[in-house]
Design brief:
alpha/beta, Rossmann fold, 8-stranded mixed sheet, 7 helices, 11 strands, PRTRC system ThiF family protein, ubiquitin-like modifier activating enzyme activity
Length: 262
């Protein structure tokens, strides 16, 4: 019997736009934000309230970012999150938010309106993922669901030519309907349960001084390809109300994409 995950019913018929936090506005985050804007327009055209996105990143635009990331020379020295969100808001007529700072890494520092239904991480270090799960994993459960209830965490991570997308559930279990056709799965592993990050020794590669140097660390189209694959999973969640796959492994050297079944 095919295994599927039915998404939380709130996301299908919310009273407010579904809230999304994107953490990281670099190579992948800048691409994900654009995909989310397209998803928002499409959802609203289908009668859904759409999305409200907040983008977090304290970094500024450098010359090495131009070309591989979605920034222009006129934005040099400006905050990445503010540049991207301002551009998206002007283009699509949205009122999304930019936060020129890190997302809080301690639960007591987080305000209620900083908690989103869906959190998407596009960061380049392990610590940020471990810190986020320490926060999300300790969120108190609620008897009701609203636009400040954490439901899903999607992580996008990559090396120079390979990467993965993993969508996990924040609550221990998402309520599933009874089905005689499918085996329903209420809990999806988050990235920190897929990969034992605590055992990984992380080395800081430092900032790149040029686009050529940046391409030695991450290839030109790895970020955009990964973003498209990840946001396609989110699109299927909203469009179909269920998913058969919670992520993918991508290798641009071999041009292979392997799905991760729920």
């Amino acid at each position: 019997m095919k295994r599927v995950h039915y998404i939380d019913s709130y996301l299908m018929n919310p009273q407010h736009p579904v809230t999304v936090n994107i953490i990281g506005a670099g190579g992948t985050g800048s691409q994900v934000l654009t995909c989310m804007a397209r998803l928002d327009v499409t959802l609203r055209a289908l009668g859904h309230p759409g999305l409200f996105v907040t983008l977090y990143d304290p970094d500024t635009v450098t010359e090495a970012n131009i070309g591989r990331q979605l920034f222009s020379p006129s934005e040099l020295g400006l905050n990445k999150a503010q540049c991207l969100v301002t551009r998206i808001n002007h283009f699509f007529g949205n009122d999304w938010k930019a936060e020129a700072r890190h997302y809080p890494s301690v639960l007591k520092e987080i305000k209620r309106d900083e908690i989103a239904n869906v959190t998407i991480t596009c960061t380049d270090n392990i610590k940020s993922r471990l810190d986020l799960w320490k926060v999300l994993g300790k969120m108190p459960s609620s008897s009701y669901t609203d636009n400040n209830t954490p439901l899903y965490w999607m992580d996008l991570g990559n090396t120079q030519t390979a990467g993965q997308v993993v969508l996990g559930t924040v609550p221990k279990k998402i309520r599933q309907p009874t089905s005689g056709q499918y085996e329903t799965v209420g809990s999806l592993k988050v990235i920190t349960r897929f990969v034992k990050y605590a055992r990984v020794k992380e080395e800081d590669s430092g900032p790149s001084c040029s686009l050529a140097e940046a391409l030695e660390k991450q290839d030109l189209f790895i970020n955009s390809t990964l973003a498209q694959l990840g946001c396609n999973i989110l699109w299927k969640m909203f469009r179909n109300g269920m998913i058969e796959h919670q992520g993918v492994f991508l290798n641009l050297d071999t041009l292979k994409v392997n799905p991760i079944a729920v």
